[in-house]
Design goal:
Elements lengths: L2 H4 L8 E4 L2 E4 L11 E6 L2 E10 L3 H19 L2 H17 L1 H12 L3 H19 L1 H4 L5 E4 L4 E9 L2 E5 L7 H13 L2 E5 L5 H14 L6 E3 L4 H8 L6 E5 L2 H10 L7 E5 L4 E5 L5 H13 L9 E7 L3 H13 L20 H16 L3 E4 L14 E4 L15 E7 L2 H8 L4 E2 L1 E5 L3 H7 L7 E4 L11 E2 L2 E2 L7 E2 L7 E9 L14
Parallel strand pairs: 7-8, 7-10, 8-9, 10-11, 12-13, 12-18, 13-16, 15-16, 18-19
Antiparallel strand pairs: 1-2, 3-4, 5-6, 6-23, 14-15, 17-21, 20-22
Helix pairs in contact: 3-5, 3-7, 3-8, 4-5, 5-7, 11-12
């Protein structure tokens, strides 16, 4: 039996949730040629958290259930949907500790990070229900003539496929669920194959919230299930959070479906510019925090630091020294752990391979990222200095490894910061508001912070990136924008008609 069930995190064995019912998956032992999904505790990899054999037929069942429920979910009206989401919020709040501990168990995140994520679930509901959010789909009308009116109304897209990531397995998909459901869409959610247990817990909580059957569905699976769902002809929209590589595949698969809503939140090679006049301690702390939060496994983590030449000899060794002191350990430790393990052995090896390749290409390793001599997929923070950043060699590495380059002046810093095909987040550290105002308009990113690191966001602000970071459909405060389509209407309420020029009376 699943360890997540044995420990009381889940009430059902590994299951999909379709049409208001839990459909148990076959255990891995009898999976045969089926797509096996299994997660492990990253701090203790021998412990299997959740496992089951994906049922490809469940994709069709889930989409059909969502489609069937769609008309009724629209007809009940927004007040009914608001009430349902308020129940969802209450259930999320009462199960916050349960969600916190399962996130840590399945992802390796520290309890402090997991607790913030679990709390953010209910907060997202509250923020979405506020008038500044709901007003985005409130519509408007105006007089065209004395008897004719122009009306803008908003209509849901229909069935929305939501694909979740492993690093924020509850919060980020919930950021899609809530606005999608409020707008009148139904949802088929596929969690990351690395965090299926958290996905199932979201299903169990949705069951407790008593959404009408078929409004919210969850199916587990790997790339094959993901491909079948994203390519399903009865899907009206795709809300995706994950890597550029996977997002590109989704875009390619939908080139012949221009009417399908595709909202992409992807990776980032985020830059921090450290100016000569920065508050040094502040810049070091924020850059270390943003580079190594969640073991570097956030799309908003700082990957590149560009430091002014005049302070490079001070900033770089200090940054490396602080990074070397970070406490690393199991997420559920009683000690004040800063970062836990990476999500998998493959993720860890990918970081180490990237580091080795960069050194062979001429980078100087200031602080080498290395494995800890203990069980678990742990890595120590890594810091390397490169000659300069170049768009042709830029790539995202998803782990606790940061690159530093020196800039001759602010203009050079801007050039190097923009030397990336990604464009999610950036940070500028300067004590001068004038310098901030001068640099920030030239930075190509969706989120630009002043004296605050790149990692972290507010749900009351938009969130999204440019280039390989996304398709400029900001989430966060503006997520309702991609969950409903504006419909233009002209209405005549009388039998008044004007005979057009050239038309004979009849």
């Amino acid at each position: 039996m699943s360890e997540a069930v044995l420990r009381g995190f889940l009430a059902h064995p590994p299951s999909d949730f379709i049409g208001g019912r839990f459909l148990a998956l076959r255990p891995s032992a009898v999976a045969g040629s089926s797509e096996l999904v299994a997660s492990h505790d990253p701090a203790h990899p021998a412990i299997e958290v959740w496992s089951g054999a994906a049922e490809h037929s469940h994709v069709d069942l889930a989409v059909k259930a969502a489609r069937t429920a769609g008309r009724g979910w629209i007809d009940v009206g927004q007040d009914f949907r608001r009430a349902a989401l308020m129940r969802w919020r209450d259930v999320l709040t009462s199960n916050e500790d349960r969600m916190t501990r399962l996130i840590t168990f399945e992802t390796g995140k520290t309890l402090a990070e997991s607790r913030l994520e679990a709390k953010a679930l209910a907060d997202k509901v509250s923020i979405t229900l506020e008038v500044q959010s709901t007003s985005r789909i409130a519509g408007f009308d105006f007089a065209v003539t004395q008897t004719r009116r122009g009306i803008c109304a908003f209509r849901p897209h229909g069935v929305m496929a939501v694909f979740g990531p492993f690093n924020f397995p509850a919060h980020l998909p919930n950021g899609h669920f809530v606005p999608a459901l409020l707008a009148g869409n139904t949802v088929v959610f596929k969690p990351s194959e690395r965090t299926p247990a958290v996905g199932q817990l979201l299903a169990e909580l949705a069951d407790l919230a008593a959404f009408p059957p078929g409004v919210f569905n969850v199916i587990s699976g790997g790339p094959q299930v993901a491909a079948k769902l994203s390519d399903h002809p009865d899907i009206d929209g795709i809300l995706f959070t994950g890597s550029w590589i996977t997002g590109r595949r989704i875009l390619a698969a939908n080139l012949d479906r221009p009417g399908r809503m595709v909202a992409l939140e992807m990776g980032g090679s985020n830059a921090a510019i450290v100016c000569a006049d920065c508050h040094l301690k502040q810049a070091v702390i924020e850059c270390v925090r943003s580079a190594f939060a969640t073991a570097g496994q956030r799309c908003s983590c700082t990957r590149r630091i560009i430091v002014d030449a005049s302070i490079a000899d001070t900033f770089i060794p200090l940054f490396a020294r602080v990074a070397s002191t970070l406490l690393i350990g199991s997420g559920d430790s009683n000690e004040p752990i800063f970062m836990g393990p990476l999500i998998s052995s493959a993720a860890r090896e990918s970081v180490l391979a990237f580091q080795s390749r960069k050194v062979r290409e001429g980078a100087v390793s200031i602080l080498s990222s290395s494995k800890l001599e203990r069980e678990g997929w742990f890595l120590t923070p890594g810091v390397m200095q490169v000659q300069r950043f170049d768009i042709m060699t830029d790539e995202e590495v998803f782990g606790p490894l940061v690159q530093i380059a020196v800039a001759s002046d602010d203009d050079d810093a801007i050039i190097q910061a923009n030397a990336s095909q990604f464009g999610l987040a950036a940070a500028i550290f300067t004590a001068s508001e004038e310098r901030w105002q001068c640099i920030s308009p030239s930075i190509r990113a969706g989120c630009i912070n002043w004296n605050v690191g790149t990692a972290g966001a507010s749900s009351r602000l938009p969130f999204g990136g440019l280039g390989r970071s996304g398709n400029n459909r900001p989430a966060g405060a503006m997520s309702l924008d991609y969950c409903a389509a504006p419909i233009a209407q002209l209405e005549e309420r009388t039998d008044a008609v004007t005979l057009p020029q050239g038309m004979r009376p009849f």
